[in-house]
Design brief:
The protein is mainly beta.
Length: 468
């Protein structure tokens, strides 16, 4: 199976969701009793999601077969039909997944006899489609109640440094920057929140994530009245790495379907789509003038993209390790990227004068490499004054570097397990850090000292509940 450098964050977040009682069906559940029909949505889709959708989804429809929707399954790919309702024995789907050496799935463990029987039952019972009208729905009628702290996948300070946004399950918690109080709970559709970013003026918050193997979503929230301004559903999987254009009119995201997309905030229209990556895109960053994007992908490439046309301008780096994190200098066209091997590297956001040929070792845009952190470099941040770079890793390390020469400024005394989010408070000396234990710790990075720590989400609920 293909290695996912974001496994650590996804594992801890998924574990917490299971503890919290997620609406998703657990894959080790018992088969439905004979007293009820097998459900396509509740019983079959989770099996496809675990074992089949890696190769059979819109971005990679092997054999022309898309298993992310009932309609895709009924089309049957290049050799239809995939099944014959009420006749499992002659259904090609059952023939492919059963037997001593099943041909599908090609990668990973085969389905168990009980799981094959479950799919056969569904076909024999008529292969009914019970997908909710309008597609999967994950709306909550009330804010989630947490019996345990979930892992913190994303943090973001407002430009004024008065609000710290923290990712929860189905929601974003807005913490006061000056106290331990909660200002609001922004509850949306997406079970998973992967990335947060305030608009340049701080009046809006972009929240991206989605429901795995179902949809990606971009949410735009008003930070004055805590109301959702817009929800943009896009792609068939979770999306990542949101960033705002300098004028605050557009947002860019990276996608699991290998695309980079740009949307206008006012109307939610997709105005750019670039397909130059060949694997998941985890992060985006705009140039200072808003004409170009740098994107980081699991395909190991940093790409420089022209926003107006969606065309590739140039490769930024010489490909090395899969890239999973990215941060931009606040006032210069510089970015720092992080790999699954923990190596932060700084590059200029400019063309190198032509894409690298095979064997070409030059890196004209390369500035410097910082000291390697233990584990995958899950998160990076650049301080508001441009002097410092912070990195957090799955190896439970939080380091702060001098941006000018790459020297290590501090090794923070972190005790919260794998680190998934770091964010500098603008015009201040605080660095907020979150990770697998669900606690947010505020460090004075200049003094290398812990100032305070709080729960990322309210256990057992909270008095402040803003629900759209």
């Amino acid at each position: 199976m293909r290695f996912n450098p974001c496994f650590s964050r996804w594992f801890w977040c998924s574990l917490a969701v299971c503890i919290l009682g997620s609406p998703f069906i657990l894959l080790n559940q018992a088969a439905p009793t004979r007293g009820r029909k097998v459900s396509f949505t509740k019983d079959i889709v989770p099996l496809f999601r675990r074992s089949c959708m890696g190769c059979h989804q819109p971005a990679k429809a092997k054999g022309g077969l898309d298993l992310t929707t009932y309609i895709g399954l009924t089309k049957g790919g290049k050799h239809p039909p995939a099944f014959v309702a009420k006749n499992a024995k002659i259904s090609r789907l059952i023939q492919e997944i059963s037997g001593d050496e099943p041909s599908m799935p090609e990668e990973g463990e085969p389905l168990t006899p009980a799981e094959v029987t479950l799919i056969s039952r569904w076909i024999s019972e008529g292969a009914t489609d019970d997908t909710p009208v309008g597609g999967p729905v994950h709306q909550l009628t009330a804010p989630p109640v947490y019996p345990a702290l979930p892992a913190i996948s994303a943090l973001a300070w407002s430009p004024q440094g008065t609000i710290l946004a923290a990712a929860g399950w189905h929601e974003v918690i807005l913490h006061s920057g000056s106290s331990n109080g909660i200002l609001a709970r922004l509850v949306g559709d997406s079970p998973r929140v992967e990335s947060l970013a305030f608009s340049p003026d701080g009046t809006r918050l972009a929240v991206v994530g989605g429901a795995p193997s179902e949809y990606g979503e971009v949410q735009i929230w008003d930070t004055g009245n805590y109301k959702q301004l817009r929800s943009i559903k896009t792609t068939a999987d979770v999306v990542f790495g949101v960033s705002w254009s300098p004028d605050g009119q557009r947002v860019a995201i990276g996608c699991a379907d290998k695309m980079v997309r740009v949307f206008t905030v006012a109307d939610g229209v997709e105005v750019m789509k670039c397909d130059n990556h060949i694997d998941w895109v985890f992060a985006t960053a705009w140039s200072q003038d808003g004409t170009r994007l740098v994107t980081a992908s699991r395909d190991r490439g940093l790409k420089l993209i022209d926003v107006a046309s969606g065309h590739l301008v140039d490769d930024v780096n010489r490909q090395g390790d899969p890239l999973i994190s990215l941060a931009r200098h606040p006032t210069e066209n510089l970015v720092v990227c992080g790999s699954d091997r923990g190596s932060p590297r700084v590059y200029r956001m400019e063309p190198r004068g032509g894409r690298l040929a095979e064997g070409d070792d030059k890196e004209n845009s390369f500035v410097r490499e910082l000291q390697r952190l233990p584990g995958a470099l899950q998160t990076l941040a650049w301080s508001g004054d441009g002097q410092w770079i912070a990195g957090g890793s799955s190896g439970a390390a939080v380091w702060v570097f001098k941006a000018a020469d790459g020297g290590r400024k501090a090794t923070l005394k972190w005790t919260g397990g794998p680190v998934f989010a770091v964010s500098f408070q603008p015009n201040g000396s605080l660095l907020a850090v979150g990770g697998s234990d669900g606690r947010i710790r505020f460090f004075d990075y200049a003094k290398d000292s812990l100032v305070r720590e709080i729960d990322g989400v309210p256990l057992g609920g909270a008095a402040v509940t803003q629900v759209r």
